[in-house]
């Protein structure tokens, strides 16, 4: 969504007569990308669906206060990232599992959940990704799969571009090492 369209959508959202239509447009524009971003973090369809719904509820409740000092997409992406990470933390607390056990559980869903078509290298890549620390996995997903620029990722995560580049580099190295262990 371009900046000009973004301003029009925000103006329509602030008007009672066009609020619902504007929000439907926003959901239509971003829902699929947000879903797949969240899905890469939480792995299962049901969890991704629930988190995506929570994201758009938060967006709806907060959109009138959006200050426009960032792009609407990066603002929504930040909400989605935080919601997905919070979901993983809740999952850890709810099941009283260690984070390694949660990653093991996610790997189990990955293997049996139909996320990947069965292509062996894709499966290996996804398993290698689940071994990464949370921040590295996030940065890798946003850079590699979502093709976001470092400045966009910095805005979403609140991290410096230099730190993001380092995280991405480390993630790539760890993934390469993991894939070459076979």
TrEMBL record:
<dbReference type="Pfam" id="PF04542">
    <property type="entry name" value="Sigma70_r2"/>
</dbReference>
<dbReference type="InterPro" id="IPR039425">
    <property type="entry name" value="RNA_pol_sigma-70-like"/>
</dbReference>
<comment type="similarity">
    <text>Belongs to the sigma-70 factor family. ECF subfamily.</text>
</comment>
<keyword id="KW-0238">DNA-binding</keyword>
<dbReference type="InterPro" id="IPR007627">
    <property type="entry name" value="RNA_pol_sigma70_r2"/>
</dbReference>
<dbReference type="InterPro" id="IPR013249">
    <property type="entry name" value="RNA_pol_sigma70_r4_t2"/>
</dbReference>
<feature type="domain" description="RNA polymerase sigma-70 region 2">
    <location>
        <begin position="26"/>
        <end position="93"/>
    </location>
</feature>
<keyword id="KW-0804">Transcription</keyword>
<dbReference type="InterPro" id="IPR014284">
    <property type="entry name" value="RNA_pol_sigma-70_dom"/>
</dbReference>
<keyword id="KW-0731">Sigma factor</keyword>
<dbReference type="Pfam" id="PF08281">
    <property type="entry name" value="Sigma70_r4_2"/>
</dbReference>
<dbReference type="InterPro" id="IPR000838">
    <property type="entry name" value="RNA_pol_sigma70_ECF_CS"/>
</dbReference>
<dbReference type="InterPro" id="IPR013324">
    <property type="entry name" value="RNA_pol_sigma_r3/r4-like"/>
</dbReference>
<protein>
    <recommendedName>
        <fullName>RNA polymerase sigma factor</fullName>
    </recommendedName>
</protein>
<dbReference type="InterPro" id="IPR013325">
    <property type="entry name" value="RNA_pol_sigma_r2"/>
</dbReference>
<keyword id="KW-0805">Transcription regulation</keyword>
<dbReference type="GO" id="GO:0003677">
    <property type="term" value="F:DNA binding"/>
</dbReference>
<dbReference type="GO" id="GO:0016987">
    <property type="term" value="F:sigma factor activity"/>
</dbReference>
<dbReference type="GO" id="GO:0006352">
    <property type="term" value="P:DNA-templated transcription initiation"/>
</dbReference>
<dbReference type="InterPro" id="IPR036388">
    <property type="entry name" value="WH-like_DNA-bd_sf"/>
</dbReference>
<feature type="domain" description="RNA polymerase sigma factor 70 region 4 type 2">
    <location>
        <begin position="123"/>
        <end position="175"/>
    </location>
</feature>
């Amino acid at each position: 969504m371009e900046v000009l369209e973004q301003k029009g959508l925000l103006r329509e959202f602030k008007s009672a007569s066009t609020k619902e239509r504007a929000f439907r447009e926003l959901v239509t524009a971003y829902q699929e990308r947000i879903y797949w971003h969240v899905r890469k973090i939480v792995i299962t369809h049901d969890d991704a669906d629930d988190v995506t719904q929570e994201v758009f509820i938060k967006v709806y409740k907060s959109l009138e206060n959006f200050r426009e000092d960032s792009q609407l997409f990066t603002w929504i992406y930040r909400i989605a990232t935080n919601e997905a990470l919070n979901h993983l933390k809740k999952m850890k607390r709810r099941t009283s599992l260690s984070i390694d056990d949660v990653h093991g559980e996610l790997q189990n869903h990955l293997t049996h959940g139909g996320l990947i078509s069965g292509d062996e290298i894709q499966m290996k890549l996804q398993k290698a990704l689940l071994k990464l620390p949370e921040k590295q996995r996030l940065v890798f997903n946003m850079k590699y799969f979502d093709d976001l620029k470092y400045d966009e990722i910095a805005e979403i995560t609140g991290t410096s571009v230099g730190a993001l580049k380092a995280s991405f580099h480390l993630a790539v190295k760890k993934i390469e090492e993991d894939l070459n262990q076979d």
